[in-house]
């Protein structure tokens, strides 16, 4: 049910959209505007308020899907967003793969602007929070991964996790995948869904490159990294990136078990691909980037 809000009057049409399991999403057209309305059945949720406070540096031609208004009822919390036109990068690249270099580069450059936003001063350091999160996933992996790979990844992560002690604390979109990027007139036009945003190492935002993006377009993923670093990718990036990819082996499997059991087989295939991409984590730079 739509919330009662002054923006949502004189409604012409309402269409229910696909959303997360805990969230309802509607496209709402009024006589004067077009909105996306998200509602969660948890009145204590602060997701929408947190998104509404984000101050992302302006970049010409790039929009960010942030709430215009938020509120709550006795049983729900909600956010009202502007409708942003365009098609997802995912759908565009399936039809026009030749756009991958340009869109990847534009995404990398735009992402760097997002990462300019510093974490609140009270935020705990990234390496402490990252270690704690990994420890929780590690404890929950159980029979989802062969014991020999658990041991090998434990050693790899243990050797490299001290690298995180000097990593910065900045805004992370934390869900940069091809379905959360919009295209208009052949150019990147918007970032969607800041619902999972966090603060920490900005390079962690490249985890989805290796987990998801390369399945559609390794070219896009490669150019996204090159665009971010203006083609001067430092060696330290690959040291950090490979550490995060080793960690995501645990977190992705546990996440799938908890929230997407039907997708577990596909996630297992992704994990095996990640292991191959890094030659059993003997390589820091993945094979998909080198080729």
Word description of this protein:
With 291 residues, the chain is α+β, with helices and mostly antiparallel strands. 42% of the residues lie in helices and 18% in strands. The chain has 10 helices and 11 strands.
Top keywords for this entry?
291 residues; alpha+beta; 5-stranded antiparallel β-sheet; 4-stranded mixed β-sheet; 10 helices; 11 strands; globular
What is the terminal separation in angstroms? 50 Å
Assembly type of the chains comes to: single chain
Helical segment count: 10
Which geometry do the CA atoms define? globular
Q: How many DSSP E strands? A: 11
Radius of gyration in whole Å, from Cα? 20 Å
Structural class: alpha+beta
Residues in helix, %: 40-55%
Order of helices and strands: EEEHEEEEHHHHEEEEHHHHH
Largest beta-sheet characterization: 5 strands, antiparallel
Q: Detail the poorly predicted runs.
A: none
Strand fraction: 15-25%
Widest β-sheet, arrangement of strands: 1-2-3-6-5
Mean pLDDT: 96
């Amino acid at each position: 049910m739509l919330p009662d809000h002054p923006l949502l009057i004189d409604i012409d049409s309402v269409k229910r959209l696909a959303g997360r399991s805990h969230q309802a999403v509607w496209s709402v057209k009024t006589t004067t505007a077009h909105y996306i309305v998200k509602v969660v059945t948890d009145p204590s949720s602060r997701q929408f308020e947190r998104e509404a406070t984000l101050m992302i540096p302006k970049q010409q031609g790039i929009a960010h899907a942030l709430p215009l208004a938020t509120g709550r009822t006795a049983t729900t919390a909600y956010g009202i967003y502007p409708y942003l036109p365009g098609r997802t990068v995912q759908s565009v690249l399936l039809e026009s793969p030749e756009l991958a270099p340009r869109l990847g580069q534009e995404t990398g450059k735009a992402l760097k602007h997002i990462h300019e936003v510093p974490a609140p001063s009270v935020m705990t350091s990234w390496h402490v929070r990252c270690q704690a999160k990994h420890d929780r996933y590690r404890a929950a992996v159980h029979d989802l991964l062969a014991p020999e790979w658990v041991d090998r990844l434990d050693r790899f992560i243990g050797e490299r996790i001290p690298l995180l002690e000097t990593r910065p604390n900045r805004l992370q979109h934390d869900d940069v995948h091809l379905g959360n990027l919009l295209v208009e007139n052949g150019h990147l036009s918007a970032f969607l869904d800041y619902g999972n945003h966090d603060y920490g190492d900005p390079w962690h935002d490249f985890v989805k490159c290796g987990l998801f993006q390369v399945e559609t377009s390794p070219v896009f993923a490669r150019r996204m990294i090159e665009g971010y670093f203006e083609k001067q990718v430092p060696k330290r990036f690959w040291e950090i990136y490979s550490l995060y990819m080793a960690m995501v082996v645990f977190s992705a499997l546990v996440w799938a078990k908890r929230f997407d059991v039907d997708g577990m087989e596909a996630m297992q295939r992704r994990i095996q691909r990640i292991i191959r991409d890094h030659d059993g984590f003997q390589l820091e730079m993945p094979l998909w980037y080198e080729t």
